[in-house]
Amino acid sequence: MVFLLFSSSLHAQKIMGFSDENAVKQADWEKQYDAQLNAKDLDSWMQYLTSHPHHVGSVQDKANAEYIAELFKQWGYQTQIDSYTVLFPSPKTRILELLGANPFKAKLEEPAVNGDKTSGQKSEQLPSYNAYSADGDVTAELVFVNHGIPTDYEELERMNIDVKGKIVIAKYGGSWRGIKPKVAAEHGAIGCIIYSDPADDGYTQGDTYPNGPFRPKEGVQRGSVLDMPTYPGDPLTPGVGATKDAKRLDRKDAVTIMKIPVLPISYEDALPLLKSLGGQTVPASWRGTLPITYHLGPSREKVHLKLVFNWDMKPLYDVIAKLTGSEFPDEWILRGNHHDAWVNGAEDPTSGLVAELEEAKSVSELIRKGYHPKRTIVFCAWDGEEPALLGSTEWVEDHEQELKKKAVAYINTDANGRGFITAEGSHTLEAFFNEITNVVIDPQTGVTIKERRYAKSLVDADKDTRIKLMDNKYQKLEALGSGSDFTPFLQHVGIASINIGFGGEAEAGVYHSVYDSYDHYTRFGDPGFQYGIALAMTAGRITMRLAGADELPFNFHIFYKTVSDYVIEVKTLLDNERTKTDIENQMIKDNLYNLSKDPKKIYLSPAAKEPVPYLNFSELDNAMEQLKTATEDFQKVNVNYSKLTKAKGQQLNEILYRAERSLLQEKGLPRRSWYKHQIYAPGLYTGYGVKTLPGIREAIELRNWNEAQENIKIIAQTIVTYTNQVKQATNLLL
Amino acid sequence: MVFLLFSSSLHAQKIMGFSDENAVKQADWEKQYDAQLNAKDLDSWMQYLTSHPHHVGSVQDKANAEYIAELFKQWGYQTQIDSYTVLFPSPKTRILELLGANPFKAKLEEPAVNGDKTSGQKSEQLPSYNAYSADGDVTAELVFVNHGIPTDYEELERMNIDVKGKIVIAKYGGSWRGIKPKVAAEHGAIGCIIYSDPADDGYTQGDTYPNGPFRPKEGVQRGSVLDMPTYPGDPLTPGVGATKDAKRLDRKDAVTIMKIPVLPISYEDALPLLKSLGGQTVPASWRGTLPITYHLGPSREKVHLKLVFNWDMKPLYDVIAKLTGSEFPDEWILRGNHHDAWVNGAEDPTSGLVAELEEAKSVSELIRKGYHPKRTIVFCAWDGEEPALLGSTEWVEDHEQELKKKAVAYINTDANGRGFITAEGSHTLEAFFNEITNVVIDPQTGVTIKERRYAKSLVDADKDTRIKLMDNKYQKLEALGSGSDFTPFLQHVGIASINIGFGGEAEAGVYHSVYDSYDHYTRFGDPGFQYGIALAMTAGRITMRLAGADELPFNFHIFYKTVSDYVIEVKTLLDNERTKTDIENQMIKDNLYNLSKDPKKIYLSPAAKEPVPYLNFSELDNAMEQLKTATEDFQKVNVNYSKLTKAKGQQLNEILYRAERSLLQEKGLPRRSWYKHQIYAPGLYTGYGVKTLPGIREAIELRNWNEAQENIKIIAQTIVTYTNQVKQATNLLL
């Protein structure tokens, strides 16, 4: 019960980066901060913000930005709305039909349901579609491609299925959705349909809306298919802010726009299409839970898909609210969440946004009581996250030089709900974050959110993991991939970032549909907004402690240890790939694939692969060894902050927060120069899912051994540069 | 390609148990044996044998026995039909209905389908039912219990669901079906419904009959629910043959008859019942693929189940055909397969039976050409396997003393189909069996059945298993549990047994339904009966080599090594159970189960368990050490057979085949004295699935530490007795 003690006996509390004296004050401010938090605010703001669909370009989108700005202004923040102009397509024509003797036309409609007062706002809703699909009018046979990721196409090849000239139908899941049409187009498909299978998102998961929280048969997952793993933001202005007079690409030259038409559909609409498929039955792991036998196709009758979009330029409204720091006004702590939604967006993103607003409100109350954070706090409410992280990306690109100088850290939230704390972020912030989860209390159980998360992780684990985890309550930060607005901050500009939220008990099958509403959220997401308050307590502490710390609470040694694990991972990946290749090549040579297969089915032996070479990791190993020593040395002397002059202290803090910048390489990652961070990136073929040490890891996955070797060198050099920063910090403290 | 060489270059071939000279002769006979095998025989016999339903007591059951006997007689075997009289219930009344405002009455009918000429033989078919269900007329709420095995009830308890006074509905799978009503009754349920979920046995697996091989929506899996893990065979005559004048129990005293009414149904009939369930949704691993959300129940409306049976005494007809051995007429090699079916039974059991008939035919052709097996061959065609291994059990009990003296080995087959060789058996026969799979050629690929099975096992394995298996083509025999007629031979009398078959490509979802027909089997099971011939080649060699060997090819050292692995397994089981208990008790003490659970759902913390003590394995370890030495010593001297006198040779062979008898203990296993084998038994709570070293393993699973300790002693003593047999054999050879 050491943690309860921590929170109830404040005078004993140490806070990273604070002198003992300032820690006592900080703890007191946090207590007062908590006391200001009021769930009723979250409820009433959510009611307003979700009262109408508020996607990019809608009336309510602008109204929400103004509403949010007005709140910030009321609370005393220097507030402005930064506007950008971006390409934002919306559907003009959507036709999906099965031709032939028993034709079927997809409804592509989500009906209003009882007890959900916004689900019927037909005229204001964006229809279900995938943003940045190509225009197209294609008629072809249909083929089922499971999740439509590269390994699925390897299986299809063995089953002798070619998607060239075909339309593919893929299940949601297994990757970010934009990967599916991208990979389909790479294999020659001319159209792509994505549907939600009830196995993953529908009746199999639980009772469907409005009886329960899960996706009803007509529910559709909208979403972007812009090739964001290449670069996010406005496709016409890569790398620069989409200001009015920015230089823009021709649309035809924007490589991130999808090459083929793609449309998301419900499982009700998918059923007749899947029934029309002939050919072999699918591999067991590809099956869904519709009441049919799943076949690979091609379909007996052709499918017609016609999509025409309005390729409009639309305005974005980013709300930026500043509170200037008393001591270091040019050191910024940024806290953001997006405000745009696909439709009414109660869970995504309003649940996180209203927590952020509550944080701002409560901080403003503290200010009135005499609280003066040393550093500048910047609250941000982004527009256009859903289509392509538009608002955050354009703003970051527009303010790149200023951010490189001033940004200490970026704190992101997005959808939030009942359950357990989850967190991904820069590993220098891990120890700092763990101190905060020690003191925030879980509203349902009364223990700390760290205790509760620990309980869950242990109960869910298998025996061996339990033995490993037992009594180890420390929460490792997951690495950041993509999927929300931290991406431009971290991966383009090198600002230490953290993304947090609660979840796991907020059951939902309404993601990106008209049913993600206030009515749904307050029944199933976070009734009473208890976890909205818990989020405000957690994110608020992160912001305030970073803003108020004497010495910034970055820990380099944890960063070293984590990257060291990544180095082991990529070496193991290479070794495993080598063993796997050797075994499979031997099996191919021994004809085992042909001997084992059912002669009545088509399942070709795979082709032999080039053997995997040994790579030279020595430069990276040496760099890591130096980093180890440097971070250990820094740990030893990092007790001397109080002895520094103010100027030296400021100099140290600058080194600490700018160190993350040295993890960038200006030329960026292979095939995507926008992504400059050498430690964290979203996967080129996962979309959201992170690839750590991406230059090495993805080259190995793509079996490009030269590229892997080159990137070992690049990352080694990056680590050396970073190590020099750590050494400089150490020297200051000696 | 060493194995192809083996079969084509016969003069180089060594055969276990044969002198070099006799091996050459034997190989030549086998070549002639193969040449006699004709797939057309299998086809025409199957057509006759499956032309009408032929369950116990039916007209066709008797006609089939007589037809089989006539064939054996034609081929020159001393043939007889041994008849027994047994309790065999069949349904008089079957009512299953959902009451309330929207009533539903289950159809309980499998309709005739196009292209299946026997599926419409309504008047001759046994209705779908579970044999040895209790009579009953119960009305109660329904509860879903997943597979209805003990671990499912632990979960139900945590979800605060009590089945007392309820009717349960369980999915097929997870155990032998008879376990489900037994465990339900132990928990106070008053009725049990079992259905085939399409996830496991229906459209999710593939196209349904008659379009494809899989279970159609009306298809029902019949089957026995007699408590065979307690004792199989006629419930009224445990331990003795059910001859006309046998002493019989009163039906009410027959403990193996199920205590509650139980009925199997189709997934079409199950759907409205499952839809009627309220309460929490089921755990994710319990879900099926019907287009509904699965709930635990209880049902909103009550269910009415009424079952009345004709508790008739019926005759069994076991066909026994002998060919007396030329040198050792009192050493018997028994080869059997059952002939009764639930309905037309093409796959189960006729596919295996027609292979056995072909073996007998081909052997008879050899006899005419001058072949004289040294030992007596006994071909058996059992009646009443489906209800309770009736025919084999009663015959074995009736001939127990004679079999104990004479039986060398029992070779069993049952359903057979296209695919890969599978084999379970006494481990003394493992090396012998592997020699045979070296020479039988797979009909689809032209390599040996061993090569093909190796290819399959390697292709299906994960990386680590591949590394372990690479180039190791040796096929370990699985241990025998139950599920076919080998049980009385092995587990009651201690006769070394082996059960073989081909499968894995014969797709079927017609098990125990009216659709297991000649039409289905010849489309999907084994078109052209190629694998029927492969089975005859394999089983025929087993029979002939055992019948013809100079020295019986039993290998004690492999038995030692296998049992040694089992000893490690039970020790590991105990250690794992201890660690698991310690961890879980700590987690309970730390309140982690309560902290991790969703407060909106019912999921109680488990109760703390008694810590697991350390047991004394030393007596068993010492016994195993002695067995190791003894089997190694035997290996060394087991090259001297040719130096023995004929009398000593015969004495040695008797020791070899009777050694398995010393693995029995007369008092049997705890709670089931009929099962006497101390190494192999079907699980008390798995039904078919084997439990090796059952006395120890099941006691640990039941957390009965005293019983486990006692059984360590009993098994140690058993091993000592067995070791003495091995030593005697060694002494003869010195």
Which characteristics define this entry?
homodimer, 734 residues, alpha/beta, Aminopeptidase, Glucose Oxidase, domain 1, Transcription Elongation Factor S-II, Chain A, 3 domains, 9-stranded mixed beta sheet, 4-stranded parallel beta sheet, 23 helices, 17 strands, disordered N terminus
Which structural class do you get from the secondary structure elements of chain A? alpha/beta
How many beta-strand segments of chain A?
A: 17
CATH class of the largest domain in chain A: Alpha Beta
Figure out the total of helices of chain A. Answer: 23
Task: State the low-pLDDT regions of chain A, or none.
Answer: 1-11
N-to-C span of chain A: 38 Å
**Proportion of strand residues of chain A:** 15-25%
CATH hierarchy: architecture of the largest domain in chain A: 3-Layer(aba) Sandwich
Specify the CATH homologous superfamily of the largest domain in chain A.
Answer: Zn peptidases
Polypeptide structure, described:
Two copies of one chain form a homodimer. In chain A, helix 2 (20-36) packs across helix 8 (346-368) and helix 18 packs parallel to helix 22 (694-701). The first copy, chain A, folds into three domains: 2-86 and 313-445 and 485-548, Aminopeptidase (3-Layer(aba) Sandwich), CATH 3.40.630.10; 88-311, Glucose Oxidase, domain 1; 556-733, Transferrin receptor-like, dimerisation domain (Transcription Elongation Factor S-II, Chain A). The first copy, chain A, is built from 23 helices and 17 strands. Chain A is globular. In chain A, strands 1, 2, 4, 10, 11, 12, 13, 14 and 15 form a nine-stranded mixed sheet that branches. A four-stranded parallel sheet of chain A has the order 5-6-7-9. In chain A, strands 3-8 form a two-stranded parallel sheet. Chain A is of the alpha/beta class and 734 residues long. The longest helix of chain A is centred in the C-terminal third of the chain and has 34 residues, at 556-589. Chain A is 40% helix and 16% strand. At the A-B interface, helix 13, helix 14, helix 18 and helix 19 of A face helix 13, helix 14, helix 18 and helix 19 of B.
